[in-house]
Write a structure and sequence with these properties.
This protein is an alpha/beta fold. The protein contains 9 helices and 6 strands. A 6-stranded parallel β-sheet has the order 3-2-1-4-5-6. The model has no long low-confidence stretch (mean pLDDT 96). It binds 1,6-di-O-phosphono-beta-D-glucopyranose (B16) and magnesium ion (MG). Magnesium ion is lined by residues 9, 11-13, 45-46, 170-171, 174. The site of 1,6-di-O-phosphono-beta-D-glucopyranose has 20 residues, from helix 3.
């Protein structure tokens, strides 16, 4: 059993897929005659697809049958996947490959802990899949963040004690999930929004290997 394990969220930590979620949700919102803005999209970060649609329908004050709801979920995902299809390595956020390479060289186990059901396909598109010892995503998890389930499953699959896991997250619900799992939480993004995190960095360029060494030690 390795002493420590690292768990990465996907959207907002490894790649910025929020912009594609935004475009796909906006298209659906237009059909519902609702003006979906970037501020609305902030509410969707780290939140499951189903919950996003529930929030959108509430905002738009639209009622849907089960069949309609399911159809909109599928339509949104088809539009989103069309954007994902065009992704490549240029979309990886700064210094992510360097951090993954550093951990790999030190034989530190790495997991993905994401709400997305498209996580594996995205990692394949940007050519990072091989770094991950395990992928825990929206296809394996019942309880969404801020529930710690996703990160606890990841720790178990890595064979690392939960209190020896370090989580990188860009969403408040994700930081809360990591804290609830008693893991070390690292906020990537706005430190004010992610104030519940144990540590904060704007992005990985700000972090440096000295900090990683300290965490591993
Ligand atoms: P999908 P993360 C999350 O990814 C996104 O932040 C969130 O906006 C999205 O609704 C969710 O994945 C589900 O994505 O529709 O692809 O299953 O931040 O948990 O990596
Ligand atoms: Mg995220």
């Amino acid at each position: 059993m390795s002493t420590v394990g690292f768990i990465f969220d996907l959207d907002g930590v490894i790649v910025d897929t929020a912009k594609y979620h935004y475009l796909a949700w906006k298209k659906l919102a237009n059909q519902l005659n609702f003006d979906f803005t970037k501020e609305h999209n902030e509410l969707f970060k780290g939140v499951s697809r189903k919950r996003c649609l529930e929030i959108l329908l509430n905002l738009a004050e639209v009622e849907a049958t089960h069949e309609q709801f399911d159809r909109w979920m599928i339509e949104k995902n088809i539009d989103y996947l069309a954007y994902i299809e065009k992704m490549d390595e240029s979309e990886i956020l700064p210094d992510v490959p360097e951090v993954l390479e550093y951990l790999l060289k030190k034989n530190i186990p790495i997991a993905l802990g994401s709400a997305s059901k498209n996580a594996r396909a995205i990692l394949e598109k940007v050519n990072l899949l091989h770094y991950f010892n395990t992928i825990v995503d929206g296809t394996n998890v019942i309880k969404a963040k801020p529930d710690p389930e996703v990160f606890i499953i990841a720790a178990n699959q890595l064979g690392v004690a939960t209190n020896k896991c370090i989580v990188f997250e860009d969403a408040v619900a994700g930081i809360q999930a990591a804290n609830a799992a008693e893991m070390i939480s690292i906020g990537i993004g706005d430190a004010q929004i992610l104030s519940e995190a144990d540590y904060n960095f704007k992005d990985f360029t700000e972090m440096g290997t000295t900090f990683l060494e300290k965490l591993i030690a």
